[in-house]
Design brief:
With 356 residues, the protein is an alpha+beta fold. It is built from nine helices and 16 strands. The protein is 33% helix and 23% strand. The longest helix has 36 residues.
Amino acid sequence: MIEEFGDGVGVRSWASILDEKTREQAAKTALLPILTEPIALMADAHLGYGATIGSVIPTESAVIPSAVGVDIGCGIAARKVDLDAARAVELADAWVKRCDASIPAGMGKSRSGSSSAADRWLAAHPPPATLAKPQRAAAQLGSLGSGNHFIELAQDQDDGTWILLHSGSRGPGNQLATFHTRVAMDLHERLGTALDDPELSWLQSGTREFDAYIADLRWAQAFALENRRLLLDAAHDQLNAVIGDAVPALDEVNCHHNYTELEEHSGRWLWVTRKGAIRAGVGDRGLIPGAMGQMSFVVRGLGNPLSYESCSHGAGRVLSRSAARKTLSVEDLESRMTGRSWQASEAKLLLDEGAR
């Protein structure tokens, strides 16, 4: 069921749980003068920095850098491998240990040097001049990151096995996003634009600032897509190593959920910003991960025009990260993860993901 609320262009909401602060944040965004169509909130909408996470924001001639977010191109990738789920369960402990030891994960973590695959990609896609430290791109391409980024083995309904992961554009994407958000905020401060939240400052199409942002954003989106592909390869390599043989890949899906793209909707070309939402055009395949230890989904889009052909990107959050750390206990998480292979020794660091 769709709920509609707010002034300005208004908000269409499919949110299953929508607290008052999130509702107010979405309604405030709907008042922006650059909007001509309603904002859409997905089923997992929750409070974000700047714009609501789980929102789809259509603009005809402008883009809001902070609505795309600091992890440009963040998303999910999955690869189905030719391995029976029962066998995967037997190997899971060894696979988790190998991935933990070989795949850089955590805040600021990267490889000591770049991989040959990263070097080849960056040679074909030179980092933009905006990056102050382009060498970080080489070191971080193929690394997981922190927060709710993860890699896991999952069993499907046919007892098949999938490698599933969540990651984005890492430090380079963050640096580009922060730079262009500051440009937008400074621009509107000089213009004297009245904004309830300066984070919602936009860049207008046809300007030098807009063109520069879109160019950097497209590079970061491509970086994020390649980052997930390399992570799939790395996790697959560790599975091969545990088995002692090459396990064939059977299928693969790789999709963004923090990005913007110029798309045609109802005969109009719009910049559609999906902040915590995936494209779900007719036949589009996407990925919706659940909370730790719970089900995830490979989905196919139906092309709902009211949501700008979009759907939710994950389980959402019942608690903020800080609230989760204060409310949940290590014992709570250990209970939820019973029977699964995971980094139990790092349970305290993973507590906030119990709130997803």
